[in-house]
Amino acid sequence: MPDRAGEASLEKLTPFDRRFTDFSGVFSYIGSGWIGGKAQGLAFIKDSLLSRMNGQDCPDITVRIPTMTVMATDVFDAFMRQNNLYEIAYSNESSNEQIAHAFQRANLPADIVGDLRALAVNIHSPLAIRSSSLFEDALREPFAGVYGTKMIPNNQFDADSRFRVLVEAVKFVYASTFFREAKTYIKTTGQSVEKEKMAVIIQEVVGLRFGDKFYPQISGVARSYNYYATGHGKPTDGVIDLALGLGKTIVDGGKSWSYCPSYPRTAPPYKSTSDMLKQTQTEFWAVNMGKPPAYDPIKETEYMVTGDLAEAESDGVLQFTASTYQPENDRLMTGIFGHGPRVLTFAPILSLGDIPLNNLLKSLLKLCEEVVGHEVEVEFAVALDPEKGVPARFGFLQVRPMFVSRSKVEVPVDTFEAEDVLIASEKVLGNGLINTVRDVVFLKVTDFDQRASWQIASDLEAINHRLVAEGHPYLLIVYGRLGTTDPPFGIPVSWWQISGAKVIVEVSLPDMHVELSQGSHFFHNVISSQVGYFSVSHNGRFPIKWDWFQSQHTVTETDFVRHVKLTAPLRVQIDGKSARGVIRS
Questions:
Q1: pLDDT in tens, 321-349
Q2: Which of 43, 121, 401, 576 could disulfide-pair with 374, CB 3.0 to 4.6 Å?
Q3: Are 540 and 531 spatial neighbours (Cβ–Cβ below 8 Å)?
Q4: Three-class SS of residue 34?
């Protein structure tokens, strides 16, 4: 898999033919140019991996890459050029809304309109309209979650309506290339937005229809390397995050079930059953197949809805994914029965093993590593038989290489007691030495208020924007979890809002067990950008030396955030093998 995955030719795909009436299993392209990193990864896996899988290992699960058509980058170039969109797209003064509306008013190139109409005429199931840019999914230039994806129901009665919605979704993905968050992030990678080109993937959504919702019973992200192995697990055992519904829950950093594939029956290290009840998934995302929503073509979730566990149980999907809490004896029982709270533990699959999903994932991760030549991250979705669970369809949605540093740095525990150590942790992500940080951004408050978390995110964005423009990497210290979709648990920032941070320290909150979601796009960008990540307990053995940080020269200060400048760079040492690290003055 090439390091610059985006520069991929069309030779692995079939030219789109409007005469097709059955697109199942077809990988086709429209236009010319490149197909982008995401599409290249899927085409590569289709040719190099799926043929090597032994179907006898998991005969009840069919593995396939969902049918897709790729609009190549020359279509994007023609769209931009013919509609004179470069000025508003490149301008730093243009808001996301202005860019999105300008793109919606523009016309797609006439020579490909008939192809999209043919798709709309012949396909009647939900579609995911996904980005596949030149920069996406390269090994050391992570762009996970930077650009837009739009899910559409594609179930309107008339082909004209389906065609209109499809075109609007394509234009939305094009516009997202130039949204503020994308341009900010591109700058931090040393790339130029003028060099970016966008291909678009039109792909079937894996799942089943349940009333007015369409969703997979299981979505997930599997990694072949686990930076936070717990219990008997080793880093090389990998880690898997599972969720109910569409994968947006996981990739946005929402609540999911995380486990080691070598020990599928072992639950995540929650402090108590009560803690588990608070921090497991209670809502899920689905495609809206019912009443059309209010018209809003520049909204990414225009055709998406959320559901709760009661709705999922009514749909009959919890029998494969949930356990039941028995408050009278404070126990979790596999399956659903009685009136106790349902908990998404995926125990019917992971503990009972009736559906061999875990065995399949272990085999897939091993094969992907062999084919890609690196540790990998795989996104997938699973549609189970509604009655028996099997046969099941496993949709292979994406594969990305992971960057795992091989540098040798040793940080023995006795180092933690050194006088110049400001921050120490035995739960650190990354590996190596960092000595380029002279700016520190930290929160001034320790008690979280949900109403304040959004303001904190805005403050961090403003400081990040300035430091990125100045070319100054910085240390960021926050309370709770970054990138969360649940503000009470931390700061709801997107990666681009803190993309200039070279080292991140997350300090836990009292009575709250918060883990960084390893399946999230946020986490992928932390790893691939080689950011040092420290997890520090608020009442641990090695407290942060706050007095030292507070005594430094203040550059900027808000109600919640302070930016200080140091006279000399910090010395950051991270031992990836032991997961220990220190930050020294």
A1: 999 999 888 888 999 988 899 999 999 99
A2: 401
A3: no
A4: coil
User: Which residue from 87, 104, 281 is spatially nearest to 175, judged by alpha carbons?
Assistant: 104
Residue 264 tokens, joined: 């599928």
Residue type, 102: A
* pLDDT tens, position by position, 147-180: 889 999 999 889 999 999 999 999 999 999 999 8
9 contacts 105 by C-beta, under 8 angstroms = no
Q: What is the DSSP string of 505-547?
A: EEEPPTT------TTSHHHHHHHHTT-EEEEE-TTSSS---HH
Q: Distance between CA atoms of 17 and 574, rounded to whole angstroms? A: 53
Residue 375 or residue 409, greater confidence? 375
SS3 content of the chain, % helix, strand, coil (to 5): 30, 25, 45
As a whole number of angstroms, the distance between CA 174 and CA 199 comes to: 8
Where do the DSSP E strands lie in 127-177? 127-133, 149-152
State which amino acid sits at residue 259.
Answer: Y
**One-letter amino acid for residue 43 of the chain:** A
In whole angstroms, what is the distance from residue 566 CA to residue 552 CA? 6
pTM attached to this predicted model:
0.81
HEC assignment per residue over 408-430:
CCCCCHHHHHCCCEEEEECCEEC
pLDDT tens profile 476-518: 998 877 777 666 667 888 878 888 899 999 888 765 555 555 5
* Rounded-to-integer distance, Cα 181 and Cα 145, Å: 10
**Count of residues making up the chain:** 585
Residue 189 half-sphere exposure, CB side, CA atoms within 13 Å?
28
Q: What are the start-end ranges of the E strands in 18-166?
A: 27-30, 61-64, 68-71, 127-133, 149-152
Give me the amino acid identity at 427.
K
294: Cα separation from own chain's centroid = 27
Whether the CA torsion 394, 483, 401, 425 is positive or negative: it is: negative
Q: Could you tell me which residue, 4 or 542, shows the higher pLDDT?
A: 542
Predicted pLDDT of residue 126? 97
Pairing of strands 389-401, 61-64: parallel
Using alpha carbons, list the distances in angstroms from residue 489 to 96, 98, 119, 494, 515: 27, 32, 43, 15, 10
Give pLDDT tens digits for 126-145.
Answer: 999 999 988 875 544 555 56
Residue 441 near residue 474 (C-beta atoms within 8 A):
yes
Contact 421, 570 (CB under 8 A): no
Q: In this structure, what token pair is assigned to residue 407?
A: 């540098």
What pLDDT, on the 0 to 100 scale, is given for residue 461? 92
CB contact at 8 A, 216 and 381:
yes
Q: Is the CB of residue 464 less than 8 Å from the CB of residue 491?
A: no
Give 4 or 556, the one with higher predicted confidence. Answer: 556
Backbone phi and psi for residue 134, each to the nearest 5 degrees, phi listed first: -65, -35
